[in-house]
């Protein structure tokens, strides 16, 4: 028996020792990014997949009260780890696993029935947040919170209050998905690529959202310069119908498939990307607006064009809204606050 074969024979049963010629005595855990997704329902899994396909996380933790479900989803994803950048994917109900996370995405308590409006289950979701947010902020005090749960504007405010985080480190998905849908529908009507269209929706994430028709453009060409009545009741081309379609999108998908997940997951992935890589990307996300701005002297979360980076919302973008758009934003703000004030005494 040759010397090499003898050594292999002696090492039988210890494949690691044979395969790896020398192991470092002190392995240094280098630059690792942990991202947490709370909630393992379809929306949470879609968020996780979006994050992993962009290879943003070296460790992704799925947390759910149903630990078996969280573990099963994590195992299912892990089977394809070789094509996701070899991340560590964990499923658990233990919030200690949140420790040192860079971003925590909260998806629990989302709408699941088409016959309910977000305000109808605000109380139930508030109770869920009273358990989730303190646990997350305890173990990841330097993280950025990304809220997807509905009603997103009010629950983002709740998350800020319960976590004690500075306002910039709490972000609501807000009207980001609405803006994406708006952009898509405009492109469909024009018969062009979605990427050629610039369009945004601000204010409440819901029926009182405000389409900024004055800012809709194609490759820099404002559509309002072509159609002065665009988006108004007197518009001969009925562009305003697109905003109605945006508002109805969630309920239509819930009616057809029971939930909506993929688009919201991809949008959440883009926000996480901006935070982790500090890209300073611009999104219409829900952010803290303190008093007397936009015509309402109350503190609320609402969607505005924001610059997002490693510190969360780093700044707002000031747009020259029309007087009508400003009026609609004030109405939108007031609607958010009217719903929010119902639960203020329960979080102060």
Automatic annotation (TrEMBL):
One of its GO terms (molecular function) is L-lactate dehydrogenase (NAD+) activity. One of its GO terms (biological process) is lactate metabolic process. Keywords: NAD, Oxidoreductase. It comes from the Eukaryota. Gene3D superfamilies: Lactate dehydrogenase/glycoside hydrolase, family 4, C-terminal (3.90.110.10), NAD(P)-binding Rossmann-like Domain (3.40.50.720). InterPro entries: L-lactate/malate_DH, Lactate/malate_DH_C, Lactate/malate_DH_N, Lactate_DH/Glyco_Ohase_4_C, NAD(P)-bd_dom_sf. NAD(+) binds at residues 39-44, 64, 125. Residues 33-172 form the Lactate/malate dehydrogenase N-terminal domain. Residues 175-330 form the Lactate/malate dehydrogenase C-terminal domain. The keyword NAD applies. Belongs to the LDH/MDH superfamily. This is L-lactate dehydrogenase A-like 6A. It comes from Cardiocondyla obscurior.
């Amino acid at each position: 028996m040759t010397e090499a074969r003898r050594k292999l024979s002696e090492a039988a049963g210890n494949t690691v020792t044979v395969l790896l010629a020398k192991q470092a005595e002190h392995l240094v855990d280098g630059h690792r990014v942990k991202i947490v997704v709370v909630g393992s329902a379809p929306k949470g899994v879609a968020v996780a997949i979006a994050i992993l396909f962009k290879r943003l996380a070296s460790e992704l933790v799925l947390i759910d009260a149903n630990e078996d479900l969280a573990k099963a989803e994590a195992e299912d994803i892990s089977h394809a780890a070789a094509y996701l950048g070899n991340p560590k994917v964990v499923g658990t109900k233990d919030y200690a696993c949140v420790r040192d996370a860079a971003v925590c995405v909260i998806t629990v308590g989302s709408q699941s029935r088409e016959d309910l409006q977000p305000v109808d289950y605000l109380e139930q979701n508030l109770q869920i947040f009273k358990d989730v947010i303190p646990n997350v902020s305890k173990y990841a005090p330097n993280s950025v919170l990304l809220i997807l749960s509905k009603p997103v504007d009010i629950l983002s405010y709740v998350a800020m209050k319960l976590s004690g985080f500075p306002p910039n480190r709490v972000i609501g998905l807000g009207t980001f998905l609405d803006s994406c849908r708006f952009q898509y529908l405009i492109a469909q009507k024009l018969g062009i690529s979605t990427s050629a269209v610039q369009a945004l929706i601000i204010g409440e994430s819901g029926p009182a959202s405000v389409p900024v028709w004055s800012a809709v453009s194609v490759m820099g060409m404002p559509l309002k310069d072509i159609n002065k009545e665009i988006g108004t009741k007197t518009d001969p081309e009925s562009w305003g119908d697109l905003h109605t379609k945006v508002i109805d999108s969630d309920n239509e998908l819930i009616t057809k498939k029971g939930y909506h997940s993929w688009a919201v997951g991809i949008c959440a992935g883009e926000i996480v990307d901006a935070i982790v890589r500090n890209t300073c990307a611009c999104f219409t996300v829900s952010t803290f607006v303190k008093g007397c701005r936009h015509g309402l002297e109350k503190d609320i979360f609402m969607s505005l064009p924001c610059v997002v980076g490693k510190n969360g919302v780093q700044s707002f973008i000031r747009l020259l809204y029309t007087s009508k758009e400003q009026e609609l934003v004030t109405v939108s703000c007031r609607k958010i606050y009217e719903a929010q004030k119902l639960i203020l005494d329960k979080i102060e």
